[in-house]
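Q: How would the structure tokens look for this protein?
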Amino acid sequence: MSKMIGSNIIMGVMLLFIITGCSLSPGVETLYTQQPPLDTELSIVGDVQPDQEATVEVMVTNGDEPIQDAKVVFSVWKENDRENAIYMDGEPATNGMYTALLPVGTDGIYYVKAEATVSEKQTLTPIKRFVVGDLSEEEQDTIENDEQENHGGGGHHH
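A: Here is the predicted structure in token form.
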């Protein structure tokens, strides 16, 4: 009987250590505050003409706060020619804005990507399509079909 009482006491003490060892200290939730997500807004300034430079800019924010120390690399390529993309470092402007002048060639559909890295932890890579000069009928059809797929349909998605 005493052996059984002794083992019950040992089990009770072990259970007490397990329960108290796994509980959180008071106030621990303040050590892990959730940061607002990083966000980017990519834009092309003005109309871009063939054989000129496109002014591109990206705003990098954390919640409402502009990020002043992001590393930004822009790339630009003509549709169906991504392997020949041109890369340029983004230059810090003001209040979280980074800019670059990217060369473009002939008329057509182009894409620009801004790769924004903050504190070597989080990288955002928005991509935007833009038009240079006049489009062929095939390129116009491509854009119209993409817009219908992305904005058309008229149905509700749940």
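The CA atoms of residues 77 and 85 lie 4 Å apart.

The two ends are 65 Å apart (CA to CA).

Upvote if useful.
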